[in-house]
Amino acid sequence: MRLAPFRWWHIDEVLAIEADLFGAEQWSAAMFWNELANRHFYRIATDDDGLVLGYAGLAVASPDEAWVQNIAVRRDAQRRGIGRLLLEALLAEAGQRSVRAVLLEVAADNAPAQRLYAGYGFEPIGVRRGYYQPSNTDALVMQRIQD
Questions:
Q1: How confident is the model at residue 62, as a pLDDT?
Q2: Which of 8, 68, 130, 137 is most buried as measured by Cβ atoms within 10 A of its Cβ?
Q3: Phi first, then psi: what are they for 28, rounded to 5°?
Q4: 56-95: per-residue pLDDT in tens?
């Protein structure tokens, strides 16, 4: 497994992962194109054959703040540390850019992801009611203050 920059030609593979994991709440190709066009920091994890196992993105909103846009790992590749490696890459990038606070939104019913983030020092700071549509699922807002 290796990490590499997310490029436009990875979008089709990423969309298949999105559809499987997020269903009606998946991101569209246009959303990923927009992220790449805005030069947000995105990485993919690939296997030895170059197939996408997961992806993650970070948007630096100001000199002091960045948002984890997404982290997703293909269902058959989960529980192998790929999500951790992707998160570590995002946090390292935030550190290189001297970002003080890294924030993210996670589904309130996604306990495994919340545990992952908590293990990296993220703490809940708020709730966005009905954030994920069409399921109307709440989002827990979490923040990590960088050293």
A1: 83
A2: 68
A3: -95, 165
A4: 999 998 889 999 999 999 999 999 999 999 999 999 999 9
**Please, which residues have CB within 8 angstroms of residue 43's CB and are 6 or more apart in sequence?**
3, 4, 5, 6, 55, 56, 57, 86, 89, 90
Active site (catalytic) residues: 105, 117
Would you say the pTM of this structure is higher than 0.90? yes
- Cα–Cα distance for residue pair 39/98, rounded to 1 Å: 17
Residue 140: which CATH number?
A: 3.40.630.30
CB neighbours of 33 closer than 8 A, spacing ≥ 6? 8, 11
